[in-house]
Amino acid sequence: MAARALTKALWGIRPPRAVAAGFPSAGLQYANAASAEPARLKADVSDKVLNQPLEKPDYFRVSELFSLKDLFDARVHLGHKQGCRHRLMEPYLYGCRLGQDIIDLDQTVELLQQALNFTAHVAYRGGIILFISRQRQFVHLVENAAKSCGEYAHTRYWQGGLLTNAHIQYGPGVRLPDLIVFLSTLNNVFQPHVGIRDAAKMNIPTVGVVDSNCNPCLVTYPVPGNDDTPCAMEMYCRLFTMTINRAKDTRRRVELVHSIAAAPASST
Fold first, then answer.
1. Mean pLDDT across the stretch 14-41?
2. Alpha carbon 145 to chain centroid distance?
């Protein structure tokens, strides 16, 4: 079920297939065998490169990047006070100790692996990934994480309509991000980030770290965890950076292998 949903979501960012070249004759297009064969081989290689990661549930081996003990050491399990708890976060809580919510790390491990796996597939297919956080103390951390993996970050005030009115603010033909990673889904203690609502309106998939005081409803891949502690934020940024770089390196390696394998066939 999860693999089928992932395949359906990734189908929307699949690049267009190559078209066979031809030459005009009396207003018609004719393609000869010499011009159509390289285009066909290139299309076959492109299909193999795109479909190969979908054959395995953990093709990029994101489960090797962290363990439950790593999350515990980074204090990912620490939530907010019980009085700040959002009712929709109760299924993700293990319990409450001394008035502070404790997040269930068993669920966090599974959901974080799913979020990292989806992020890797988007990066593998050349998608644009946008990191978002409104916490001032983590501005440089988030921006450096996005820069280190060749993606984008938005850590300032979110102006309404950046996604919904992008064709008006930036002109026609602007490309929206293929995935938005919210390292914090709140503007302050109680106000949710406006970008989550705008991304849902534009059908842009989102990955979000949701603390015990957050609303996980509009987040495509919610990751229950602490979003205030510096060591936890550093771990999130490191995991997403490693995942994106691993996916891009895998894409380059797979393309090289398939191009070398297709070279003798095209020469003959």
1. 47
2. 14
